[in-house]
Amino acid sequence: MRIAVVGIGGVGGYFGGKLAISGVDTVFIARGATLDALRSRGLRVESINGDFFVDDAHATDNPSSVGPVDAVVFATKAWQLPEAAEKAKPMIGKNTVAVPLENGMDGPDQLARALGREHVLGGLALIVSYVVAPGHIRHAAIEPAVMFGELDNSRTERVEKLRETFERAGIKAEIPQDIHRSMWSKFLFIAPMSTIGALTRGPIGVWRSIPESREIAMRALCEMVAVAAARGVDLGADAVDRTLERYDAMSPESTSSLQRDIMVGKPSELDAQAGAIVRMGRDAGVPTPVCETLYSLLLPQERKVRGSMTGR
After folding, report:
1. Cα angle value 22/20/92 (rounded, 5°)
2. pLDDT tens digits, 28-74
């Protein structure tokens, strides 16, 4: 397969790098300092599973020069996805699939509006990784994996081929029975971890061990399970306990990308995570007081960073 990876941060850099070093024809769509680094020095990935290096990374900021590919993997920040999808149109051929690996639940609909629903899969990534410097990625925790599937959950040849390509590259890849349920399970995991981490300014090992902050996480999880149920997704009676167990199994120094962005004063995925929970809860008539509080407390800084609030 010929695969384009859009967004060469912690997720796109790791998975795109694995594809490239396995021999898959991989094109990195990047810009600015990241593009310069990929062209001049290649892609360096430090990983708890073993470091690797892509010294001849095929990188460009011009999707028109790439032409149609078999798959476009989107690994941008959630708020960057609509613009990235528009720019990716020259790479979408008749049989191209578009796979969103962003955090949040809006990715498939955003890609469908730009590219056509017939091209879009549901998708998610499981990894803790981040940018050390342009073209330099560090995978710090969690066994990396991806999941993707047709939006109607049918088993198709194109999805199977994509899974086989990822697995041959040494990437754990799964086609779940229900991609929407799997995306919700990932969303359930990442959203409370992100907002609580951002507010406490501490890694997961700190706030999960304090009864008061752990209680906030549990209440937020309960609200999200109720919202999912109201939208027709049953996450299971043990969803909260399962998620707390995943938190407890993580390296104590683990943080989320949203938390890291907020802590260094960058724009974050706050709207796509906590904001989305609040909106979906309101639409479904499900109260989300804890999630709304977490969102509201982080909103002033987010607006300041984005230049929409000056303060008085």
Report:
1. 125
2. 999 999 999 999 999 999 999 999 999 999 999 999 999 999 999 99
